[in-house]
């Protein structure tokens, strides 16, 4: 009777292995396939008979041999389970994804458990791979991370121009000022606004005004270095924080920016618009108590540029450069 029970239990176990919605693969120590359940058949398109005694590494060349064999040997040698998760490696074997989340990924994300199988004498001659389809979990997490990244970007950038918003560029300026105090590094601030913007807005409409703002921002973004920060101060006013840049270098940058904006042809519908900018420049110096003083000096220079005829650059403590 006990033998009959053992045979029945084995039959039940085999039936369970075939029915569960996870991949079950048993390998010998040469990585040859001994067990291949229906999950693996359905997703690989190959039957248990077709893959029997074939090397899993030959059957799926996408498997990183060095990484995989190290995992298998660790499980076999220590006699403990080894786990891999999709965040570390998206999949062990590349299967197409048939989850209802269509159009997002073309492969199945997988978690894998490597289970050493001991004989009655305690040796490990086989290992079992249990492969879980975690595509839904992975996609949900990736979508959440993407949404959080997008929200963070929106929190840091101005909607209209894509430049840094005022809160963020002021934080950058504050950090740059602290860096100057600690390391005596140089930095300059360029503040500029679009000349006669209200007149342009009143004449051509707010949509044209928005397009002019976008185009000026695009010119600015195209001229800065990776280490610089370009932001929107508010309305038609902009700033550029030039790190490791003395006043003379900032003035040269401002002159090139002034010329580039004046030369830009802005198409809005059938209209071709032009604009210019007035620019104030200041640099950090020992007499400044905090970053707000740098903004104040650059702002005063901007006022002088506008008072002096616009479409020009004024550096703090200097006369205008037309």
TrEMBL record:
Q: Which Pfam families match?
A: GGDEF, PAS
- The GGDEF domain extends over 185-318
Report the PROSITE patterns cross-referenced here.
GGDEF
Q: Please, which domain of life does this record's source organism belong to? A: Bacteria
**Membrane spanning segments where?**
none
Q: What is its EC number?
A: 2.7.7.65
User: Which InterPro entries does this chain map to?
Assistant: Diguanylate_Cyclase (IPR050469), GGDEF_dom (IPR000160), Nucleotide_cyclase (IPR029787), PAS (IPR000014), PAS-like_dom_sf (IPR035965), PAS_fold (IPR013767), Rev_trsase/Diguanyl_cyclase (IPR043128)
Q: What class of enzyme is it?
A: transferase
Q: Which reaction does it catalyse?
A: 2 GTP = 3',3'-c-di-GMP + 2 diphosphate
User: Which Gene3D superfamilies does this entry report, sorted A to Z?
Assistant: 3.30.70.270, PAS domain
- Tell me the PANTHER family matching this sequence: DIGUANYLATE CYCLASE DGCM-RELATED, REGULATORY COMPONENTS OF SENSORY TRANSDUCTION SYSTEM
What's the protein called, per UniProt? diguanylate cyclase
